[in-house]
Amino acid sequence: xxxxxxxxxxxxxxxxxxxxxxxxxxxxxxxxxxxxxxxxxxxxxxxxxxxxxxxxxxxxxxxxxxxxxxxxxxxxxxxxxxxxxxxxxxxxxxxxxxxxxxxxxxxxxxxxxxxxxxxxxxxxxxxxxxxxxxxxxxxxxxxxxxxxxxxxxxxxxxxxxxxxxxxxxxxxxxxxxxxxxxxxxxxxxxxxxxxxxxxxxxxxxxxxxxxxxxxxxxxxxxxxxxxxxxxxxxxxxxxxxxxxxxxxxxxxxxxxxxxxxxxxxxxxxxxxxxxxxxxxxxxxxxxxxxxxxxxxxxxxxxxxxxxxxxxxxxxxxxxxxxxxxxxxxxxxxxxxxxxxxxxxxxx
Length: 347
Fold this sequence. Notes:
The longest helix is centred in the N-terminal third of the chain and has 17 residues, at about 105-120. With about 350 residues, the chain is an alpha+beta fold. It folds into two domains: about 15-150, CATH 3.30.1330.10; about 160-345, Phosphoribosyl-aminoimidazole Synthetase, Chain A, domain 2 (Alpha-Beta Complex). It has helices at about 15-25, 25-30, 70-85, 105-120, 175-185, 185-190, 195-205, 215-225, 235-250, 265-270, 295-305, 340-345; strands at about 35, 45-50, 55-65, 90-100, 125-135, 140-150, 165-170, 230, 250-255, 285-290, 310-315, 320-325, 330. The strands form two sheets. A seven-stranded mixed β-sheet has the order 8-10-7-11-9-12-13, sandwiched between helices. A six-stranded mixed β-sheet has the order 1-2-3-6-4-5, with helices on one face. The mean pLDDT is about 90.
């Protein structure tokens, strides 16, 4: 591997991860027949088969883009990945890394309380973790680990899409990014002339539309045979779509006109010159379902006050990843491991 590769904030490039998996991990995992899903591009969590017709779904994820409400984020982001596999979240652990400067008892208690309150609201047990003061850190980082449980026959994989399946998007995109930007860049937005009401609406995207997908994921999996689900986060919607297609060895045609971007998100993308399709979007859920069930699922979600829309269809791999633009033309769907929100913190 070349030492000249430039590494930027965001996800490590897929070709590098794939080499690491092949060289150092897959040969070990091949000897464990209970490992149903191990390290694989696009899969949301690991899956271990138990002897009681249950699978354990295990996920770990850090919060690095924001320190505001970091405990709330840490629980929800991990929950999203576990429920995207069809599992019910059960047990949570966290590693809390705190900076030498500006750490006090109030900060520590606020993080613990956020984790406690969020877990309690979802009936998740906190079962352990680690907390320390860390050198050369300039803000808190919380790394969550969540274990969930699902019946064998209700497990959902990112890699389960099939040719002809529909791709459904819930809520819209750029949800988490909108809340983060409004919180971290409030003064900048005020200087740009945005009023308090606009900024508060953006901050409140954390709760409305909300960064949690637990309701829609468990609802969809309870009533339908879901082929795949995925929780797009860093890198935004397009990389999330690409992860499903690549994991499932398929191509896809995505209709850009069907993708909802909320008005506040659209405005922020203009202010900071962001591509909204490539900006962190926890709160969006991608659901893959057979064509015959697509409209029924949309109606079910609507009855539970969850907006959703069909935004694409999976095709044979040879057609590639395609975007149907606003003029109806097919162009390559471009995605990047580097999240657009990085531009905001360079302002």
